[in-house]
Automatic annotation (TrEMBL):
This is GAL3A protein. It comes from Gopherus agassizii (Agassiz's desert tortoise). InterPro entries: Class_I_gatase-like. The lineage of its organism: Eukaryota, Metazoa, Chordata, Craniata, Vertebrata. Transmembrane segments: none annotated. It comes from the Eukaryota.
Length: 225
């Protein structure tokens, strides 16, 4: 029987939800790894809705669970129904929805708050010593919930203009965590906390390199399961 993995989404679309390519890459690698995946999202209102064509907020109201269902092809569950005992691992793709809907990092930075249900889900897997995989901006969730943990969001300097959000690494260090510099095709394993992270679209890189990096994250999560 394959490893049982819960994948948590934050909406649909990079600017106000989950990053579509990252979610898809994680699902492809999980499928290739023989995992049994169930998809979840919190049943909450999005912080706001962004017109992805114009790049600007609209007056619309959308629900994170309803929007995430687009990525899940309708096969999705309320995060409130997730039972840690039914799973071997937990994975969070990235996207601004993580920083806007699952926590308030997009507005408050390192002083953000994490959605209580998201926080309790992370804590439940951590307490059960089950691995947690996070990519792109989602490692900040671990940095907020697990002080002292090790994560990567890529590099701590904007190397060759490829890491425009490098200051995120400094904020993670200010939270008392250790940031490990990694390139896009790599992931970092915090063996003590069973947290696996990769930078994905925090790096300006070709899509196939981001896909491969997420693949290393998924592989390490399954190995730890």
């Amino acid at each position: 029987m394959g490893k049982r993995v819960a994948l948590v989404l934050a909406g649909c679309g990079v600017f106000d939800g989950s990053e579509v390519h990252e979610a898809s890459a994680a699902l492809v690698h999980l499928s290739r790894g023989g995992a049994q995946v169930r998809i979840f999202a919190p049943n909450i209102e999005q912080m706001h809705v962004v017109d992805h064509f114009r790049g600007s907020p609209t007056e619309e109201k959308r629900n994170v669970l309803v929007e995430s269902a687009r990525l899940a092809r309708g096969n999705i569950e309320d995060l409130a129904e997730l039972k840690v005992g039914e799973f071997d691992a937990l994975i969070f793709p990235g996207g601004f929805g993580v920083a806007k809907n699952l926590c308030s990092w997009a507005v408050d930075g390192k002083n953000c708050t994490v959605n209580e249900l998201v926080k309790s889900t992370l804590q439940a897997f951590h307490s059960a010593k089950k691995p947690i995989g996070l990519c792109c901006i989602s490692p900040v969730l671990a940095a907020k919930v697990f002080p002292g943990c090790e994560v990567t969001v890529g590099q701590d300097k904007n190397v060759d203009g490829r890491f425009p959000d490098a200051e995120t690494a400094s904020a993670i260090v200010e939270l008392g965590c250790k940031h490990i510099c990694k390139d896009v095709a790599e992931s970092h394993v915090d063996a003590t906390n069973k947290i696996v992270t990769t930078c994905a679209f925090m790096c300006k890189a070709p899509l196939h390199e981001i896909f491969d990096g997420i693949g290393t994250m998924v592989a390490e999560v399954l190995k730890l399961s």
